[in-house]
Structure formats: C-alpha cells, structure tokens
Design goal:
Layout: H1 2-10, H2 12-32, H3 44-49, H4 52-85, H5 89-97, H6 104-115, H7 120-127, H8 139-163, H9 167-175, H10 180-191, H11 193-208, H12 212-216, H13 225-235, H14 239-259, H15 265-273
Subcellular location: Cell membrane
Main location: membrane
Family: Belongs to the binding-protein-dependent transport system permease family. CysTW subfamily.
Length: 274
C-alpha cells in the first residue's frame, strides 16, 4: 500500500503539468474557436475552414511539410549510417546537434545574409560570370533552410536505431549471398523503421506550423497553417478563426502521430507467449 501511495504522490506533478500546459491550452483554443469577432457563439469559423481558401492552404502546408521531411530523410539516413561506422561517432553526432542549440531567429537571419543579393552565394556565382540571382524569397530557400534546421532531429533517432542494430544480422545476410541493396531493404531498414518514424514525427509535425521562416526566408510567398494562425491572431485579430485553424492543426498532428506510432508487435507477442 505504501508503494502505491508513494507512486500516486510522485505522479501528482506530472498530472498537474499535463493539466496546466496541455489540456488547459487545448481546451482554451477549442473554446475560442466557437467565438466570432464580437465574442458570440458561432459555427461559421468551422464552415469557413472548409472553403477553398483554407483547403488549399492545408494542402499547401502538407505538401511543404512532406518535401521538408522527405529531403531531411534522404540526407539524414545515409549520414546517420556513416556516423555509426566512424571511430568517434558520438563526437560527430554532437557536432551535428550543436547547431540546433542556436536560436532559430539567429540562424534564419544568417541565411538571409547568405542567400541575399550581396551574399556569399551570389558573390561566388559572379566569379564564374553569372549575374545576381534571387535565391531568397523562393521555395528553394524556404525548403533548404527548413531542412537545415530540422535535420538534426531526423538524424538523432535514426542514428540511435542504427547504433542498436545487431551487426551479426548484417553479416548473416551477406553470408547468405544477399546483395548490399537486399541487405538494406530487407534487414537494415525494416529493423530501424522505428527510428525513421520518430524522425518523421519530429520533422513533419513542426513543419506544418512554420511561420517565422515563411516570413523571413520565403517572404510570405509560402503560406502554411502556422502563418495563417499568426495572421489571424496578430493581423486581423480574429482569434476565433485562428483558434479554429489551430484545432485542425492539432487534429492533424494527432493523426500523424497515430499513423507513425511505433508498434513493437514482436516484443509484445514474445511477452505474451512467455
């Protein structure tokens, strides 16, 4: 009984935290989503969300989040794989993670200087006789900077999954005559899929709600759900519509977490049989 009581006491801060910083904010957002500009109850916000404007905005957000996640995965997986083969892998991993500690705004302004008309990229192009190129305020600059910012969050879970992989399984695959591609597709990737799913969650979900990078790097040429929420709250002062978009954003995030959730069926079935 004492152990149960002590466990319940220790869990109080956790439940208080969840109540104050998870449930309460979501409940407040849901409440404001049913209010109009005058503070009266309305369902118009939800009706407006299903108009062509917001549906296109949602599809655009998913498209850019998909591209950011895809390019992050393409770069992160081979990087994480080669990191596990290096001698000082923890040191190299630390060097990759350190940039994520720098303030996001500082990194964004740094890329404004790099991609600007007077930046080092255009200076390098002029050496080869290429005139100034408008790199900033384009889809390329937005996706590039987003991938740079999120890529450590993709590398880390994949690295952990690869690092825990039993090398004897790879050796056994090669001993049985499997090619490198077959070994990767049938052994390595399936056994590290949970790391990939965790990386997808860490990149795709925040990519849906980007707003600072869209303003500073894309010059508002890229509009996401995060940008729309910012505009509704700070520009038009329509807290009801902004909250409605936030509600759907939360729903999308929950769906993505369910789809990419980790299911260790093998371990579960083993525990039951045991």
């Amino acid at each position: 009984m004492q152990n149960k009581n002590s466990k319940s006491i220790y869990s109080v801060p956790y439940f208080v935290w969840i109540l104050l910083f998870v449930i309460a904010p979501i409940a407040l957002i849901a409440y404001y989503s049913f209010l109009d500009l005058s503070g009266n109850f309305t369902l118009d916000n939800y009706k407006n969300f299903f108009t062509s404007v917001y549906l296109k905005l949602t599809l655009s957000s998913f498209w850019y989040a998909f591209l950011i996640t895809l390019f992050s995965l393409i770069v992160a997986y081979p990087t994480a794989y080669f990191l596990t083969k290096t001698k000082h892998k923890q040191l190299w991993l630390l060097l990759i993670i350190i940039p994520s500690w720098i303030n996001l705004l500082l990194k964004t302004y740094a890329f404004i200087g790099i991609f600007g008309l007077s930046g080092p990229i255009n200076a390098f192009l002029q050496v080869f006789g290429i005139s100034e190129q408008q790199i900033l305020f384009t889809d390329f600059s937005f996706i590039f900077v987003s991938v740079y910012i999120f890529i450590p969050f993709m590398i880390l879970p994949i690295f952990n999954a690869l690092d825990k992989l039993n090398p004897s399984l790879i050796d056994a695959s090669k001993d049985l005559g499997a090619s490198n591609w077959t070994t990767f597709s049938k052994v390595i990737f399936p056994l590290t899929i949970n790391g990939v799913k965790a990386g997808v969650q860490a990149v795709f979900i925040p990519s849906l709600s980007l707003f600072m990078i869209t303003r500073l790097i894309a010059g508002n040429k890229v509009i996401t759900l995060g940008t729309a929420i910012e505009q509704q709250f700070l520009v038009t002062q329509n807290w009801g519509m902004g909250s409605t978009i936030a509600v759907f954003l939360i729903i999308f995030m929950v769906i993505i977490m369910i789809i990419t959730g980790q299911r260790e069926k093998g371990a579960t079935s083993y525990g039951k049989n045991k």
